[in-house]
Model the fold of this input.
Amino acid sequence: MPMNGKEKKTGTLNQEWNSTQQMKEDMIAALYEQLPDCYDMLQHIQIKLLKYSENVTFLINEYNAPDQLVRKRVFRINRPEYHSVAELEGEIQWMKELSTETHLTLPEVYQGKDTKAIQQINVKGIAFTGIMFTYLEGRMVEELSGAALCKQMVQIGKILAQLHIQSQNRDAKIRIERFSWGISDFFGNEARWGNWRDFSKVHGMT
Done:
């Protein structure tokens, strides 16, 4: 569904986002119904949850026939009231810059049928923004341990160095909207991810 500039505020963001398995099931059902309206897709699709965290990420398998896998893509539902559309557009802009100005391999962003990269998915009356990416093979860092993890941490350090160099040298006239990550954003009373004192594993340590 194209973005219409009228995103519905949930009013109970944390409760909705941190709710039970039902939210995930509702999202998958909405994607089966609405993704073919947003993108050119093959006749048969299979949707699997990859990660439910700051955002919700799904693997989209597309088939010509039930047993003929043709394409994999990734669709990310963005947490509502967390990033604005302008900030998401800034993320896409930075990904384009990194793809051309560094040696990093990044996923590409698909445009919808309306030629826009950011689409809207409605889940039980709540409007979510979402973006479709190409699928890149790999493993999550949390799946690694021991020598494999140490080796990957070296690679992550090299990636971070390229991100830092590009951010320092990029054309500052091309503005990218992103919110700040200052001390108050991490530890203040209005911290973006909540007050750290409320985290259950911290109780008894302060």
